[in-house]
Amino acid sequence: MRLLVEQGDIARVRSSAFFDARWYSDTYPDVARTPLDPASHFARIGAFLGRDPGPQFSSRYYLAANPDVAAAGLNPLLHYLSTGHKEGRTPNPGVLPTGPTPQLQRLKHLRDLLETGGLDAGPRAALKDMAGGRDGPDAAAGAAEALALTAYRCNDMAETLHWLNVSHTISRDAFARLAPLMAIATARTGDTAAAEAVANTVPQTSALHLARIWWAKTEPETLACLNAALTSASLSPVAIEDGTGHTFDRITQSVKVGQAPDDGPVVSVLMAAYNSEDTIPTALRAMQSQSWSAFELLVIDDASTDTTPKIVAKHAAQDPRIRLIQLPRNQGAYSARNAGLAEAKGHFVTLHDADDWSHPDRLRHHVEFLLANPGYVGCLSQQARCAPDLRISRWTGQGEAFFENMTSLMLPTNLVRTCLGGWDDVRVSADSELLRRVRRLFGAHAVATLNSGPLALQRASESSATADKAIGMGWFYYGARREYFEAQLHHHATAWHLCYPPDRTRQFPVPTILRTRQDEQSETSLDRVYAGLLTAQNDALDMLLDWLNEDRVKNHKVGLVPLYATTMPTEGGLSIHPHLRDLIDGSNLRVLCYGETVQCARYIRLPGQSVTEPHRYLPTVHEGHRCVLAPGQVPRDQ
Q: What is the reported pTM?
């Protein structure tokens, strides 16, 4: 799928060190016979003919070495400039793969401490020092970006703009990428004219058009911004119905729905719903408007107590493609999806949340890609997270508005049933865990991410799992989601199979607050709680391993609390050491997470470690009548 080339893409080609206009014109004389300048020709035509932008970049080599890029129909140079170089991909066969420099490794470590680790003053000070340029321009720009994103998350727009301007002075490429965020931050200060001026300083992109909704004054202006974002991503425009409800819920198709080929494969769409009466009509209409009409929509009602089943039943009575499955008791979204998977009849299967909206071409883009690229196991596309008034409300860790839509992952139904078993039975994040399983089993590039732009809009809501204080997430994992991520990676690397049939016991331990069944809840009263730096092999970790062996003999129930320090070594990151991870079973030994409250007979800090900074994401731990750990506090020594 080749996407419409934006002016911003041409500008990035022209400014790239890999593009040589004279060399390109001399090497490909036919360029002179077209009305296009060399940069425009390469961006629009040459890249897709396998031509090189200059002597130092081989398009054919890059596409051959990176089949995911080739399958997605992406411009090889633009992919390399945006993400490929960060991932260690090489521009030509004569360049050896390189990892991040020590300075960039330190940058990542500081960001992890600030975001995932929940520290504040220490990482901020180190990032500010790095933004001064001592560690080179790449590290300086990255540090400024990290500080800007943190300030934005804290709703400090003046601080956000300060650090974005610092980044701008270091890297023009970074400014082009961060312009939507800068424009919105400017609009949030009340200066909409300045926001528009920021948006006009760089080539126009789909994300910039969507950002303009932040300062749109009327609903027609909002619609114009949304449609500009869609058409810029080669997606058909939409309309907004008259009414008084949220703009998000009044999006409708503006063109006639097409039909799937008579022999086209059927897609099973699984939609888990619980007390979704206010939002599910939008999700149902979005699916009924799909241009790929060969689908079945299985709505699995997870024992709702509102009118959700009646709403679905009404739609099902009018559309035979919709089926309502009602569960006798509330089981959680992923258990509900597994129930739907058991009844799915389609060749492919995908998900759709009961509070989101999808563009009419979402299913078509996925199916046509998989049919045209049979070497891929599956694919997924992009989305933007928006408030009910369609304002962008979430950013990636790189300050971008579009991110992978995990629910859009489309796979062969039989593969999910036979090779994967289904989704893990947890409260959140099982969709990303399943994607990692697929890539572990079939290869890192087995699932393609379509560079689709806003093919779906995810609803931002205070009641969503993503917004939940304890089990939510930003552009980074923390607390229970972080521990679930670490546990699944360890399991994927060590298990002899990765099939999770719904009727099997848990395959690996997960945090208590992510479990869906009451009979799986762990004790809130423990014999021991150990807290400390758990990432590196040292005397303290060796002592902990000895203590845990004694606890095992005594059948003690034990909790672990990872702590962090700005001064801790970069090597190993924030991950629990593998020797310790091997012992965690989720029952006798488990990791305690932010949002949990436990009582322990004895609390022990690992000796010889200096941990002096408050931690945002601590569990609450009581030893007797005193609180020894709590969110936002400096961990007690003993």
A: 0.85
